[in-house]
Specification:
Structural class of chain A: alpha+beta
Distance between the termini of chain B: 72 Å
Number of strands of chain B: 0
Mean pLDDT of chain A: 84
Largest sheet of chain A: 8 strands, mixed
Number of helices of chain A: 24
Largest sheet of chain B: none
Low-confidence stretches of chain B: none
Mean pLDDT of chain B: 88
Largest interface: A-B, 63 and 55 residues
Radius of gyration of chain B: 24 Å
Order of helices and strands of chain B: HHHHHHHHH
Strand content of chain B: under 5%
Oligomer: heterodimer
Number of strands of chain A: 21
Radius of gyration of chain A: 27 Å
Helix content of chain B: 40-55%
Chain lengths: ~700, ~150
Amino acid sequence: MYPPELKQSVVQIQVGRDKRLKEDCPSLAEGDKTDLLEKYHPNYVVQGLRKIRVGPNKGMRAPKELADLLEGHSRVDPEVMEIGAVDYDVDVLVLGGGGAGAAAAILAQENGANVLLATKLRLCDANTLIAQGGIQAADKPDDSPIIHYLDTMRGGNFSNVPDLVEALVRDAPAMIQWLESLGCTFDKEADGTMCTDGAEGLSRKRLHTAGDYIGAEIMRTLGDEVLNRGITVLEYSPALELIMDDKGQVAGALLMNLETNEVSLVRAKTTVLATGGGGQLYYQGFPSTNHYGATADGLVLAYRVGAELLFIDTIQYYPTSVVYPKDMVGQLVMEKVRGLGAKLVNARGEQFICSRETEDVVTAAIIRECQRGLGVKTETEMQGVWLDTPMIELLHGAGTIQQNLAAMYLQFKRVDIDITKEPILVYPALHYQNGGIKIDAQGATTVANLYAAGEVSGGVHGRNKLKGNALLDILVYGRRAGKAAAQRARETQLGKLTWEHVKRWQGKLKKARLQKRPVSPQLLPDYARHSKVMTPDWQRRYRFELRKERVLPRLQPVDTKYIEVILNNILDAKVPPVARMRLLSSGFSTDHKLDIMEDVTGSRTCLGCGNCNDICPLIAREPSRRERTEERTSMALETILVGEDCDRCQACVLVCPQVNVTIKQYIVNRRAVETMSRLDSRIGDDQTPDLDLFVEETIAL
Amino acid sequence: MVIEIKKKFPPEKATYNVENLTPSREQLLVLYPDITSCQGCNICTKSCPQDIEVLRYMTAALCGEITEVAQRSFECMMCRLCAAKCPAGLPPYYIAVLCRRLRGRYLLPRAQHLVARVAEIEQGKFDAELEDLKKIEESELRRCLRELNTEA
């Protein structure tokens, strides 16, 4: 439900709705568009960009947040870090578990390589999974790769690298065929003809869809195929640094397990970077539609070994993402909503932009409204404009929303917002990194034995990506990079592994007087989805722990005495079970007084699975405690209170999938010891132990 | 009450080559013989964040109705919560992905226009034109686009 101050604005804009239905907002003249873009579009905002001061792209402009990370200190201290035993010795190392990584791994294995896939989160946990729009391929009789080529060039403002676009459009139909043969479902007619959609900037209907789940369908299938082929997958293992050999070739990477903090050295003849973009860096304070892992790690890794970057100053912004409620911030509101007739409306209830304009113009217009005080403010000091969804029902009749936007209707229904009667508050969000590592048509970067594919690479989309080309990009270049990497691995002889390149990098930083830069790659983003949702204190707390000093990850085990203290502390806290579990699993809390627990808290976020609430005997006894919500998101579960009545059964800790195993083992072991000692004491009293009673007591414990 | 130690988590995935399968009940049972041990407790459905009726499709899987499983599980995001909560240690999400792939590969008709286009590309029908396009200037490309739009 909207809070009173927003509710007031909702009522205000309701008044003019009938009038707005009839009026037609004219599209802007060409000159006005350029003016609007140059004044308000974040890619043109000079304050948000700065020149990079070190490395192969010295002098090139990049978003400030990214530039800081690119100039960052290595997580590996070359003076201290010795190259010891090699933990994995493989032909091809693939970094990234999204669509590009999976495609590269499959193709590399098909070409006879021994492949290792390492990913920061889990396999399939990537932006590919949440892609909704579609995948482009010119396979209909009225279409051709030529038209696809022209469209893509126009979309990228003719700045695309022609060779890359050619490969993209030429391979496209074969990609769809490949997916089809792997068992991917597409929307089809009864005779097998693909149902294709059109979109902004496309001359033909070329978007292949699978409901709203095209990305998920591709990712699930590729992920399944990776597992079927027996490719080794290391989950929760981001790369800290690429390693090189004495011949100047990339020769693998140093990985760290996020759960155990153990580091492992991978020696690989070739390496494929498929780590995706950097939407979670919140450039210029914008929210992000991206997945949790998108922190531009690949750009940093590649930059440090000397790979050139392209077009990294252009980011694609999605004009409409949710601003309220807080836990949905950054969630994408599909273009389809505007297509169905929902208009964008400012606080005064005026239409300020024609909904047929291109994405960048709409983005700039929304920002303009908010900057000149016509935006609507939320309690978290964020601004947005209304996307008037009730108009859809007025235009097309009742029930249209539930039929066409079922998933979205449901999501808002859960937070008590009925989008058939109330509008949605929206603001532009970071969506896609158009540029990236410079590659050739085989996916090779400018550094020997290093390949890149997907969002981390640049040049395919030029300065602006066209809808549906991102999914195509990951497949075409994932496959090409995988194949090329496997072939290259056959003819590669690695020399002696060395950290010399890190030493040189640190030297360069010193020379350029850039000692005060953060440690990078960042690995995990700030916890919330938007910088404004957080206080500065939180930001400091949730940067990954290695941010403080340039040291190697901690390896010592946690002291068990310490666990007892921490468990008591956490179970004493008068907070809901889910908040307690978050303390244990990620150290995340709302009062930030958790320094004492740093050694046991992990880095895994709450899944919102609700296991902790389900198992809690107190909530089971008194169901009234949970009456307030049935919703299963991390925030909503927090309304279920246990507080000081807690039984201290610790069951919630045991069922939480994200809590560190050490803590769970400690609890289980301690219980076993306690029970055994009680049993032992009874036998000592010369009594026959009543086993039934004993079992009952154990359960009650 | 029965106290039992949870079986291995995450549950094991059957490995297969999708090219050598048949879309049948027997195939499902060969790959996942454990699906017969479903207790019907419905905790999988309750745990699903996508509101999928997991038990319904698991029952359909037992009957070999592959299309039904594929359609009912289409919104699955592979979060593994159903498997985490299953007392029988079943992996419903793996069974769902198998059925979706079987349907996609064997039960849905293939797109013929796709076969034709891929053959055309392999024969090099567009090669010369693409080579030319790569060389020409921006203004020329704009002209091509204008012509294209007037045709349409």
